[in-house]
Amino acid sequence: MENQDNIHARLTAxxxxxxxxxxxxxxxxxxxxxxxxxxxxxGARPPADLQAHCLAFCSALERHHTSEEHDAFPALAxxxxxxxxxxxxxxxxxxxxSGILRRLEHLIKDLxxxxxxxxxxxxxxxxxxxxxTAILESHFRFEERTLTDALNTLRAPEWEATxxxxxxxxxxxxxxxxxxxx
Length: 182
Fold this sequence. Notes:
Number of strands: 0
Radius of gyration: 19 Å
Distance between the termini: 39 Å
Shape: elongated
């Protein structure tokens, strides 16, 4: 039987949970990037499936950032006032990411098989996706470096019963494209 200290430590490792969420978001972004490369190289994945996967990721990331700003940042500001400048920088990052997500969503919604044969459109789409990946990686690393310890010491008993969305976002899987072979 676990002692109470171990149970409490496990329940309050919010910073470690944030790193896990970022790991899942990174993994999804890599999958989307790989799927986009395959599509642009003439792969068989239908544009609608790629669109659905990309838009689901964009939505999950927006919810994650909205929850951070609504739940995590106020809690951190209250218990760690020295993080004010860091939290302002992260809010600025969120606005930057949101703008890129909107451009990426627009490009993805217009994705057609013709995009494969239009180098300009393919470069534009690839550029937005690469930009998003680079900015997110920088943002995630900065957030993890500056907030993990504070989140791990944060006292938020209400989060133990019901963790806020930024701690449990799971980007939806892409639509099933048919039978799979084991």
